[in-house]
Hints:
Elements: E1 20-23, H1 24-43, E2 53-56, E3 62-65, H2 68-74, H3 80-95, H4 100-119, H5 124-145, E4 147-148, H6 154-165, H7 174-188, E5 190-192, E6 195-197, E7 203-209, E8 217-219, E9 222-224, E10 236-238, E11 241-245, H8 265-288, E12 293-296, H9 302-310, E13 314-316, H10 321-331, E14 335-336, E15 348-349, E16 352-358, E17 361-367, E18 375-381, H11 384-407, E19 409-412, H12 416-430, H13 436-446, H14 449-457, H15 462-473, E20 480-481, E21 488-489, E22 497-499, H16 500-518, E23 522-525
Parallel strand pairs: 7-18, 11-12, 11-14, 12-13
Antiparallel strand pairs: 1-23, 2-3, 4-19, 5-6, 8-18, 9-17, 10-16, 11-15, 16-17, 19-22, 20-21
Helix pairs in contact: 1-3, 1-4, 2-3, 3-4, 3-16, 4-13, 4-16, 5-12, 5-13, 5-16, 6-7, 6-11, 7-11, 8-9, 12-13, 12-15, 14-15
Amino acid sequence: MNGNNQGNVQPIYILPEDSKRETGKSAQRNNILAAKLVGETVRTTLGPKGMDKMLVDALGDIIVTNDGVTILKEMNIEHPAGKMLVEIAKTQENEVGDGTTTAVILAAELLKRSEELLDDKIHPTVIINGYRLAASKAIEVVKDYSEKIDINDKKTLLNIAGTAMTGKGAENAKTKLSEIVVSAVLDVMSKEEDRIDVDVDDIKIEKVAGANVEDTTLIEGILLDKERVHAEMPKKVEEPKILLIDSPIELRDNEIDTKIQITDPARMQEFMDLEEQMIKKIAQKIIDSGANVVFCQKGIDDLAQHILAKNCVFAVRRVKKGDMEKIAKATNARIATSIDSIDVNDLGKAGVVKEQRIGDDPTVMIGGCKGAKSVTILVRGGTDHVIDEVARALEDSIGVVSASVKDGKIVPGAGAPEIELVLRLKEFADTLKGREQLAVEAFAKSLEVIPATLAENAGLDPIDVITSLKSSHKKNEKTGINVFTGKLMDPINEGVIEPLRIKTQAISSAAEVAIMILRIDDVIAAGVEPQGPPMDPSQGMM
Length: 542
């Protein structure tokens, strides 16, 4: 018998019974594998020749898209490391509007290359340090590689918008849609001293099925999925004076319970007459203000509707707060907080306000707004699936044009910046000593995944393409791959242009998530919470 009694030591459990734990290499490899699988899922969607994914949810609803962030969101990925790659795509979407697939593919490739270094017994912290150095240098290089643009250079802005739409559902109508996007961004753009700002929320996208994608239009104003509150009101008002009010045009309900006791029947009529007089007074104040169009955030009483209709006032009720703010920006109106605070100087102006049916839906259009700082893009298409994909392409395009206008910097597309980074990072790696050099070289090699994927998706040989691009860039030529011809081209001359921010954001996000996953050596997953009431421990016992 062992004197230390070691054979009788009971194991100590510090985690719940249903918990799962992976440590060391097993945890690292599983995380890397999950990230690689997520990258492979969206890889075939990259570029002008990228394919689409059909996503079907539990209710049978279908989404057909090649937008990276939409695919990843709808997949409901469960693996923790996979979720981290979804977060990259969301960040890229919020910051730039496009380049989500690029960021995810790059992060997956960085982790794939790190796995090879781990197999060579290189410690994760050495890889992490190398990746940090490489990411910092890459951003410095790509900024140096960028070019300035003039916001008045509409041709360049149209090319940027068109590049974001190429390979997506909106590509057939790319020319017209690009013009709509650039016009919309320039309309809502604001300048403060040397700073340019664009709030993409000021560009409203309304989707109505029917007609063709080519029938998509830009409205210099706002389109609401509403209708006038009374049939006798005018359907159309030219040169309207617009009142915006966020209080109800009716008698307010008391916030506390009240009880009115009337003992004389004559008093009942008197009470009703008093209510009617109060509503008439409210309606009269609106008419006296000179407003002939009213948008109310709350309700409008039936009697008030009748009075406004008799006075040829066009009224819409229960308009969303966000839409009220957009109308205010478009018409230069101020939102009145109460009936008593209505001021003639707060009324807005437009070219026309009219109710019209688009497809089967009644809508109210506030159009012809001069100097509108809020506009609407009305998206048309044969089916809801087509419209949704066109709307996603427009959102991406709006994002990249906005980023280009704000930063004033662009880079050529078609894989040109990535190849330049590959060569420059390899030169940088040669200046380093120690094992970090290998990590920087791995980072450089990872960047080849973008032009390689563009080539693969176009049915070209990726090795031939990358070899040709490297040879060209060594001669200081800014070349990319033309996926339609398989030959090299000057992307900027051919109109394949992207904002600088797409590249800087993708590089920094991909590097950060790769580093975070490499730092993990222990994954502890909690057990599933038991459902329903606790079981009686006596049940099931023999």
